[in-house]
Amino acid sequence: MIVVTRFTPVLAAVTAGLLVASAADAQEAFTPKAKGTWMLNVRATEVSPDAGDPIVTAAGAASGLKAEVSDDVMPTIGLSYFVTDKIAVEVIAGMTQHTVKAVGAGTDVEVHKTWVLPPVVSVQYHPYPAARFSPYVGAGLNYMLFYGGKDKNGFKVKLDDGVGYALQAGADVVLTGRYSLNLDVKKVWFETDASINDGALKSKVNLDPWVLSAGVGYRF
Description:
Elements: H1 2-29, E1 38-48, E2 53-57, E3 62-69, E4 72-82, E5 87-94, E6 96-104, E7 107-117, E8 120-125, E9 133-151, E10 157-159, E11 162-176, E12 179-189, E13 191-196, E14 201-206, E15 210-219
């Protein structure tokens, strides 16, 4: 009891300090998203194309091959601005690198490797902006820009840039202060025309990637 009594003021002071700090954090953490709020999300993102389209000859005849595109994981950045308490506009940017393969019976060969810049602009709806767990949904447009391409194994490949559209769902989970955990899923629909060996072979490749992200957000 003497030991407990001796340390009671210290324990009380520490406990009081923790309670005050927790209360301050809680007050700041539960400050709702509101009109004029900016949110910066830094995420690790996996881009998983859903390609597997047939490769045909210039005359449209079947080649027995199909185009496959590899996945990639890279960092991305999202910046959101709240136009109202519940409506936000987000711009997402990042770069991923993908390998294009021609696959068929007895064939599995890399034909091209390319960087992709696929910015997405979406409008989001946040139904519970004041909650610790704050989900959202969104829809928007994306632009696929292919650059830094490298042909492989004697093939010459050209991929057309273009516009697609996206649906989005995610959630912000308050960690402490202005920081939050962000989880985000997008489905992007995008088709590109692939020309191989100056059009001797071609394919309409539906990339249609799933874009899966997790990261940390900061509200300011």
